[in-house]
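Input structure tokens:
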């Protein structure tokens, strides 16, 4: 099958992906191809992507540091803004050290491939993000996948393993289902069986925990076995990622994580913007309070509808549709109502579980939620 035939097959199966081009800033209201939409599509959970304080921090940092970092962190690309932010992030999540990465995908690839190899075993939830799965493949460790959140199966797999190093990897908040990993049970199993626990908190950082400190704070968990990763382009509203944990673990990543060593450092102005955002994340509890109110309003409004919301207490509210074409058609029908809600299809989600991924933001209002509920009700 040539490339054109393969693309035609994807189109026929309702799996061809297309891009939208925003004509302005990210937010609850966006403009695409000359039309204005109320958007439930981004991961800007706290509504910070277009915050003036972040723009001002970028402007000041550009004047002080310029634009590009010019080199990798281990040559001359690591600047004062990066160093300050790493200390702030470590303090914020209550762990000894933190290390900046350019993206969450690169962070996961770097951590897993640096810590495990051919003789080791990695235990992964079946609904983990693609970056965690790809990271295990890159590491060449043996991957053992357990059914979503099934602690019984995971315990049996850990007990059977005689690998010299064992690593459990999990999303904190699962990106397409919106549910939260059973963190206390996961940590207990890791401590019982001598495994490390890598938590990808991309969708929990800034939203969960006191002051948005993330899933570890949310569950009051601490252990030298935990390796914590979070991204800075979702609730924080900027870009990048960081890994935090035990000092020896972070130092090992500096020495061995190829996605850290062999890439240009983030621009210093990005680090400055994240620092400015962290202050807002920490102080603006009203943003998380509003999210909780919006989530409750949406779930109440759609409780009796044709399509079922999956169980979720987070800003990720998946509306299960089923078929690929039906999900696409529903997304297009909402777009005709001026609403932007993406259809998510395989392989991002399992077959026959295509859905609309409704993403809520503190920038939304109750009226915005009611407008979405009314539109979906009219399409029942």
């Amino acid at each position: 099958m040539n490339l054109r035939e393969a693309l035609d097959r994807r189109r026929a199966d309702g799996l061809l992906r297309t891009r939208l081009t925003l004509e302005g800033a990210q937010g609850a209201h966006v403009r695409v191809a000359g039309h204005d939409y109320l958007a439930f599509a981004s991961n800007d959970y706290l509504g910070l992507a277009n915050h003036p304080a972040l723009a001002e921090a970028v402007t000041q940092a550009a004047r002080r540091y310029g634009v590009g970092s010019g080199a990798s962190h281990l040559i001359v690309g690591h600047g004062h803004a990066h160093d300050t932010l790493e200390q702030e992030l470590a303090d914020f999540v209550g762990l000894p050290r933190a290390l900046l990465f350019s993206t969450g995908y690169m962070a996961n690839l770097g951590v897993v491939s640096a810590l495990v190899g051919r003789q080791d075993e990695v235990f992964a939830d079946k609904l983990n993000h693609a970056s965690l799965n790809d990271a295990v493949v890159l590491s060449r460790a043996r991957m053992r996948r357990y059914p979503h959140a099934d602690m019984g199966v995971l315990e049996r797999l850990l007990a059977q393993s005689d690998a010299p190093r064992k690593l459990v990897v999990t999303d904190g908040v699962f990106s397409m289902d919106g549910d939260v990993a059973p963190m206390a049970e996961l940590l207990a199993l890791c401590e019982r069986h001598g495994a490390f626990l890598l938590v990808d908190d991309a969708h929990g950082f800034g939203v969960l925990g006191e002051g948005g400190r993330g899933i570890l704070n949310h569950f009051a968990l601490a252990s030298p076995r935990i390796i914590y990763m979070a991204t800075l382009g979702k609730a924080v509203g900027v870009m990048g990622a960081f890994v935090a944990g035990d000092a020896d673990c972070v130092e090992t990543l500096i020495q061995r994580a190829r996605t850290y060593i062999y890439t240009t450092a983030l621009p210093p102005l990005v680090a400055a913007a994240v620092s400015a955002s962290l202050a807002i994340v920490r102080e603006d509890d009203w943003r998380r309070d509003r999210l909780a109110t919006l989530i409750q309003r949406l779930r109440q409004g759609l409780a009796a509808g044709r399509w079922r919301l999956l169980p979720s207490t987070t800003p990720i509210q998946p509306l299960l549709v089923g078929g690929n074409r039906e999900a696409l058609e529903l997304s297009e029908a909402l777009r005709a109502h001026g609403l932007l809600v993406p259809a998510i299809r395989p392989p991002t989600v399992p077959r026959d579980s295509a859905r609309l991924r409704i993403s809520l933001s503190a920038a939304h209002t109750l009226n915005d939620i009611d407008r979405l509920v009314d539109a979906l009700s009219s399409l029942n």
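The CA atoms of residues 102 and 266 lie 6 Å apart. The first helix runs from residue 3 to 12.
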